Amino acid sequence: MSNRLQSEQPSRLSTPEALASRQPSLWDQLRAAWRRHQSRQRIAGLNSYLLKDIGVTYADAESEANKRFWQE
Question: Is 14 left (phi over 0), alpha (psi -120 to 50) or beta?
């Protein structure tokens, strides 16, 4: 009989609440800023047909593409 399931120690896995409450590291913040930059560059390159296909107006796409990378 295995005793692996009978451990009395609390689980070391992070709960969703614990993950949500932690402050993002500088690396996480830089990664998020880079993703926003890439996403905005991609949306700026879409033509009107593709924008209509994803349900975004040209004005919305333009305003999103013109945001700075640090803006959310």
Answer: beta
The pTM (predicted TM-score) of the whole model is 0.61
- The rounded Cα 56 to chain-centroid distance in angstroms is 19
φ, ψ dihedrals at 34, nearest 5°: -65, -40
Q: Where are the domains of the chain?
A: 26-67
What average pLDDT does the segment 3-29 reach? 72
pLDDT > 80? residue 19: no
- Phi, psi of 40, rounded to the nearest 5 degrees: -70, -35
Q: Which single residue is written with the structure tokens 């609390």?
A: 10
CA Rg, the chain, in Å?
A: 21
Mean pLDDT calculated for residue range 50-64: 93
